[in-house]
Amino acid sequence: MHSGRPTACTDPELADQETTPGIGVHCVLSDVFHPEALCRAAEIEHARRQLMIDRDAFVELMSGVCAPVTVITATGADRRPHGSTVSSFASLSLDPPLVSFALDRASGLLNHLQPGDRVGVNILGAHQRALASAFARRSQEGSKFDGVAWTRRAGLPHLPESAGWTAGLVQRHVDGGDHILLVVCVEEAETTPVPPLTYARRVFGTHTPLAVAS
Ligand SMILES: Cc1cc2nc3c(=O)[nH]c(=O)nc-3n(C[C@H](O)[C@H](O)[C@H](O)COP(=O)(O)O)c2cc1C
Question: Using an 8 Å Cβ cutoff, are 155 and 118 in contact?
Answer without folding.
Answer: yes
